[in-house]
Structures are given as structure tokens and as C-alpha cells.
Amino acid sequence: MTTFGRRSTAKQWARLAMKTGLLLTDMKLWSALSDQLKDHAGDLRDVFKDRYEDTTDRIQDARSALRGGSNWVSPVAGFVGGVGVGIAVGMLFAPVSGEEARAVIRDRARDVGNKVNEMTGSRFQPTGTDGD
Q1: Domain spans of the chain?
Q2: How far apart are CA 126 and CA 33, in angstroms?
Q3: DSSP of 44-101
Q4: Which has the higher per-residue pLDDT, 5 or 43?
């Protein structure tokens, strides 16, 4: 494939396909790859073991957090702050006017509130000044 910038012919593509086929059926290549995989199996085992231990530690931390033994305020505040920044940036770059964006947000918030009320059986009715 020395003519990369020029128009390639069917003959050149056929040669590439044959070379690729020969490479994929070469037993020396596959045996070398299998030897390397065997050599690195121990390394992979160590990586998996470390990740497993890290995951079990996180699960234990989550269990203690559910029991009230962990500080969860900071991550939740960071998440809520990130959502707020995302909404603000989205509103800045929205392809609609501010009035339309506020109306859409108000409608979506009302829909979410209604769904929450339906799910919880709550009788709380949000108050609004949109004139509905």
C-alpha cells in the first residue's frame, strides 16, 4: 500500500487482504502471543485482586454509610452543585429564549412534582405564580 495518497486499485486491496489473512493464520505469531499471555497472567491476576479488594472496601464503606457511619454530605453537595452548574451552563447556551426555557423548566418541574406526589401518595400541591 505504498500509494496511500493515490487511488488504490483492486489488486492492491487484494494483496492487503491476503497478507492480513496470512498474518492471522501464522502459528508462530499465535504461539508467541499465547506465551506472552501466559507470562502476563500473573500480572493480570494481581490487578484483578487489587480491584476486587478495592471494590469490597467500597461496598463496606457503603454499608456503613447506610447505617449512618459515614460523611455523605460532601459528595452529595458536590453532586448537587455539579447539577446546578450544568443547568446554568445549559441555560446560557440554550437555543431558545429565556422565557421559553423558564416555561419548559417550570413544566418539567411540575411534572416531576406530580409524579413524586403520585408515587408517595402525598397531598402536597406546589404553589406557582405562572397563572395556571
Answers
A1: 10-66, 73-120
A2: 65
A3: HHHHHHHHHHHHHHHHHHHHHHHTT-S--HHHHHHHHHHHHHHHHHHHHT-SS-HHHH
A4: 43
Residue 116 amino acid letter: V
| Backbone phi, psi, residue 64, to 5° | -70, -30
- Quote the pLDDT of residue 8: 65
Q: What is the pLDDT of residues 78-97, one digit of tens each?
A: 888 888 888 888 777 777 77
Question: Counting beta carbons within 10 angstroms of the beta carbon of residue 55, is it exposed (0 to 12), middle (13 to 18) or buried (19 or more)?
Answer: exposed
The 8-class DSSP code of residue 25 comes to T
How far is it, in rounded angstroms, from Cα 62 to Cα 84?
A: 25
Cell numbers describing residue 29 = 505469531
Q: How far apart are CA 39 and CA 27, in angstroms?
A: 18
**Taking all residues of the chain, what is their mean pLDDT, rounded to a whole number?**
77
Q: Which three cell numbers stand for residue 53?
A: 479488594
Give the C-alpha separation, 30 to 27, whole Å: 5
C-alpha cell at 44: 493480570
